[in-house]
Amino acid sequence: MKPWAALGRGDRLFKLVTAVVSAITLALVAGIAYMLYEGSTLSIQRFGLGFVIGKVWDPAVSMVFGALPLIWGTLVTSAIALVLGVPVSLGVGLLLSEFAPRRARFPLSLLVELLAAVPSVVYGLWGIFVLAPALRDFVYPALQAALGFLPFFSGSYSGLGVLTAGIILAVMIVPTVSAVSREVFSAVPNAQREAYFAIGATRWEAARHVFSYARSGILGAVTLGLGRALGETMAVTMVIGNRFEIPSSLFQPGYTMAALIANEFNEATEPLYISSIMEVGLLLFAVTLFVSVIARLLVRRSMKLFRGVANE
Amino acid sequence: MKDITNKRYLKDRIYISFCYGALAIALVPLLSILFVTTSKALPVLNAQFVTQLPAAAGSSGGGIANAIQGTAIMVGVASVVGIPIGVLSGVYLSEYGGRLSDLVRFFNEVLTGFPSIVVGLFVWGTIVMALHHFAAIAGSIALSILMIPVVSRTTEESLKLVPKSLREASLALGIPKWRTTLSIVLSVGRSGVMTGAILAVSRVAGETAPILLTSLSSSFWFSSLDQPVATLPITIYYYAISPFVDLQNKAWGAAFLLIAFLLGMSITVRIAFGRRTSA
Fold it and tell me: With bands split at pLDDT 50, 70 and 90, how would you rate the model's confidence at B3?
């Protein structure tokens, strides 16, 4: 046998091994999808569409499961997080890419990224003992005095509830959204800024142009933040109050899909109950998959667009 | 000299101040968490706290040493499984192109975007159900699944920065490609690979939801990978929602240890290995 034939074999083997190992990711995603679907068959067959619109979750007596309050809680807390978190994040992103002195940018973005290094459970701990009391004593009374005529700011409050969960989620998505939006802003070709400065624009006017130039990337950053908010578990579980209902006021307790899984997986022994929890997981999986694919495509598209322009 | 009375310059100043204001708002929670955690943790941090098993609720003394041990073991096992897989996958993505790489890259991103509780539910539905009980190994597997895409991406990125001429020089000497990749490319790019590994560890060491569903908790020392195990995140969770003030204080102590470790790692990585990272 020729010596280089053996060499070729080694290379082919190495390529095969690394290819197989890297395909583990594919297998995992497919496996997760299959397992969740398989696990929720029982519940899907039993409740069908009723699972998504049902408002009853009764593992004790009637064994009827419907997830609407969970879906409502997940969507509303995430919406609050976006409303509060996105303006702050975009401000931070603009500052770090456009306005802050060059030498300050690295330490400042490091500080913002540290927010992402704090684990979810520590946010929850802080939420229970610092944020919730502070909101109950200072923010919510003022909010109710000003906007109490609106139904969703009415009623009594304990500090633990849907609004508090939304606020803590807002804090948690800031590092993600601001890091990605900063990247998107920085990727805007410099010629775009220079053209504005050349006609005597102020820094803000140039930044506004950068902002509108980068809008699909910004949308991607926001969508990434949404994905994070939808699936966030521990911090929300610890402050939302975990009550299975659609509350009339944002001050009241609610429940989310992720929180229900974290709270009830250990109580489920009945196959139908387990299957219903799996279906909640399947719904969460499907929603976050959809959101994250959209987000990645948006960010990728806008980055590619900029690179194309810069090369011209 | 710019005329501040000019409306456009005034607007410029105002909006840029808003951006600084946004930064201040974003940093308030971080500073609050660091300050409160440190001040609440100081009274409970002592030698006993980090060397002893938990005491019965309500009685004084006791520690969370088993949780520290459990987190170390669980993250260690997850790293032993997840990091080599991630590195090899990153090697494939950077050294061999093609449609499979595009697909893997995309799925890596998708997997990174999954809520960690979904991964926990997956391991619960497969491994825990098969074993019929919670086990440390199930938690480690869940964590390693979360580590793989992070390590893979950072490995790929850092290997792509290795100059082509190094590969060509090695190949020209008659060294086969696999040998070149392992001995030259990986060794030149090792600081990037290490960054990825540390980032991955810091991402999973604080994970709570997937561990809750797979390893649960325990009041004893680690006994075997086949048994439930105590970990810092779960200890913080249970203590935080317990009605006992004594345990709540210990939750702050445990949170202090955990974030000191995680923030320390993040800062080291960013400063030692440069600024290229993203969430």
Answer: low
Query: Over 50: is that where the pLDDT of A312 sits?
Result: no
Report how many Cβ contacts below 8 Å link chain A to chain B.
270
CB B137 within 8 A of CB B81: no
From residue A41, give the alpha-carbon distance in Å to each of A32, A37, A47, A128: 14, 6, 10, 37
CA–CA gap between residue A23 and residue A35 (Å, rounded): 18
Q: What is the pTM for the complete model shown?
A: 0.93
Best interface-test mutation with A: which of B110, B119, B183, B259 has the largest number of A CBs within 10 A?
B110
Q: Is the confidence at residue B1, as pLDDT, over 80?
A: no
**Are residues A118 and B101, on separate chains, in Cβ contact within 8 Å?**
no
Mean pLDDT, range A280-302, rounded to an integer: 90
Q: What does R_g of chain B's alpha carbons equal in angstroms?
A: 23
Domain boundary assignment for chain A: 68-311
Asked whether residue B277 carries a pLDDT value surpassing 90, the answer given is: no
Q: How far apart are CA A74 and CA A152, in angstroms?
A: 16
Answer yes or no: do A121 and B236 touch at CB < 8 A. Answer: yes
Contact A116, B278 (CB under 8 A): no
Q: Which fold has domain A68-311?
A: MetI-like fold (1.10.3720)
DSSP B97-151: -SHHHHHHHHHHHHHHHS-HHHHHHHHIIIIIHHHTS--HHHHHHHHHHHHHHHH
A129 touches B: beta carbon within 8 Å = yes
pLDDT level of residue A7 (50, 70, 90 thresholds)? low
Per residue in A195-219, pLDDT (tens digit) is: 999 999 999 999 999 999 998 899 9
CATH class of B47-272: mainly alpha
Task: Give the distance from residue A80's alpha carbon to the nearest chain B alpha carbon, in angstroms.
Answer: 16
pLDDT digits (tens, 9 = 90+) for A133-165: 999 999 999 999 999 888 889 888 999 999 999
